[in-house]
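Teaching assistant's notes for section 4

Start the section by putting this record on the projector. Ask students to predict, before seeing the second block, whether 6,7-dimethyl-8-ribityllumazine synthase will look compact or extended. Collect guesses on the board.
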Amino acid sequence: MQVTEGQLVALQDARFALVAARFNDLIVDRLIDGAADTLRRHGVPEEHLELIRVPGSFELPLAVQRVADAGRADAVIALGAVIRGGTDHHQYVAAECTKGVAQAMMGSGVPVSYGVLTVETVEQAIERAGTKAGNKGAEAALSALEMVDLMRQLEA
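Reveal the predicted structure now:
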């Protein structure tokens, strides 16, 4: 059986858009740093990285869709942090963000990596933004790199 899968290879010609929420910026800025650092370490030049900020995670899908439809990037990385508050509001934001980002990817055909944290506490968010549980922004960047390589293989 032939197996085709993306590799974590240097993609010096690939362009990546990081679409990130400003809300919970203490956390999201660390996700951005992790994603950008990972891309640079894998050979992506600074001029091939674009950061687009939106007010919050609920607004991520529209910006992701526009970037993907415009052909501005070979992959988009969605970054945000949805943290439980005193109501169920976080559940609605997280669900719609997830659905919207997935729809943007499927509608555009451009890989979108999902680096949006959905957590119960600020402490959990901090753990996932570069401490105990790694950096989910960096993990999303690795996924984006692999998907760009895979899409190129599938087009060949």
